[in-house]
Structures are given as structure tokens and as C-alpha cells.
Amino acid sequence: MKVNQPVRGVKVGRNDLCPCGSGKKFKRCCLAESVQTRPRTHPEKPKIRLKSASDVEGIRRAGRLVLATLDLVRERLEPGITTDMVNDWVHEFTLRNNATPAPLHYRGFPKSVCVSTNEEICHGIPGPRVLKQGDIVNVDVTTILEGYYADANKTFFVGEPGPQARKIVDVARQSLKEGMAMVKPGNSVGDIGWAIQTYAESQGCSVVRDFVGHGVGFDFHEPPQVPHFGQRGDGVRLVPGMVFTIEPMINAGGYELIVLDDQWTAITKDRSLSAQFEQTILVTPDGWESLTPYAL
Hints:
Shape: globular
Largest sheet: 4 strands, antiparallel
């Protein structure tokens, strides 16, 4: 099997035997291909791997499947279904499309999707909970397709929402728009967080501090972290080829949270409503592109 890059932690010299097993020297075999295919890294933060055009297309394909999955859930949501039914729909649809649900068994997570309802902020484990009229429910889908990861979520209404539910969902939706508008080369992750926090707090809501956006594409979670609060100019500078999520979690009350005994489900400490929207974002030479695009 051909090896395009040296094994992590093993240095292969130009005159060493090529690790692909051809019997030739590395310089006369896979060296050129290794140099060409090695992922580029951020000029200041080498742990941040930039995505090539072919990588972006792979993430975009995975993103299309994520969106199709969310559309399927939206069409079926109604009072009386359980969150475990949502998990079954996501799991079966993902496998049917030759992909893998990234959350399943990730660090022990037992299901294929996160489903978080009302006061649940994130990482809700699907189970017997029955959705009822007026609930809001966040469905967070991460899909692996042909080795690439894409990640997006939406908060849906179950039946007709009340005024508080409608407000928090509207603020969360606009918070994502405010954050995305700050993405361009030369800006920083702090600019994204500043824009989200400024808007959300102007609406009398709060921004969760304990969970942040993250790099994605080659893996479920990669550098950098992308806080949804902060100061302009702070943090990592944005450069073309970066791919990360922006996923502000917005609470109607305070930003403090509690993690339940299942060690996953995070709820608002004051039991206020919480909502979230997320997209996977590429930094382009002149701005940004969503690789999981949906109308906000």
C-alpha cells in the first residue's frame, strides 16, 4: 500500500527506503507525492490543518448529506414522537447513504445524534422523552462521508411555539448570522465571539461559555476552538483554508449550566429555554462559504 506521508513520529530521509515498500529510495519514489499531498497548516498555528480544494469538496459532499438528514427530521417532527425515534431516523438514513454517524460511540456517546429539548443546551441523549406541543428541539448532526466530517444543527418547533420559544430561537438564529458575518481573512476568532455576544446580550439573552465551535473536516473536533463570546482581535487569526463550526448556544436566562448524571446532557442552571444553530464554515480568500448552507 502506497504511503503518501511518513508515519507520525518517524522521520524518513531522502535516501532511506521508501515506506511504501517499493524497495526504492524515498527521493525516487513517494517524496514528491508526499510533499504535494501533505496538508498545509496555519502559518502561525501549525496544529491547525488547512483544507485543500479537494478536501473542501469532500466536506461539502458530507455537508449535503447532513442537510438532507436535518430536512428528513424536520418533515417528521410532531407532538407524540420520542427523541429516540429521531435517533433511529438519523441512524438509518446515514447508513443508507453509505456514511457514518460521527457521534455514535464518540468518547462513549451512546447514540447517533444529539437531540436537546427546551432547557437542554446540547448533547442531549435520545431516549424515551416524548415531544409535546410547543417544545423546541435542537437536532445536531455530524456525518462522516468518504473520510470527511461535516457538522450542522438546527432548532425546530414542535407544533405551535409560545412567544418565549419563538424569541430564543430567533435570537439563536440571528446570533449565527452575526458570527458568520465576521469571517474573513485577517479577522480573528475573537471577532466572531464578540459579534455573537454583543448581539445576544442586546436581546436580553446570554451566551454559553462552556461549549465552543471547533475545527472540523479531517476529524470530528480539530483546532481551533471558536468561542461564541469574547473581545475583538483576540485569538487565532483567520486564513483561507480554515474550516470550523460556528454554533452559538443562546439561553433565555443566565449562561450557567449543569451537566446531568448521564455525563452528557447540559441544561440551563435556571431551567430557562436554550436554542442553537450551527454551520460548518470555510474561510475563503475574500470571506467565507458555508459547507452546510441553509437559510437563516
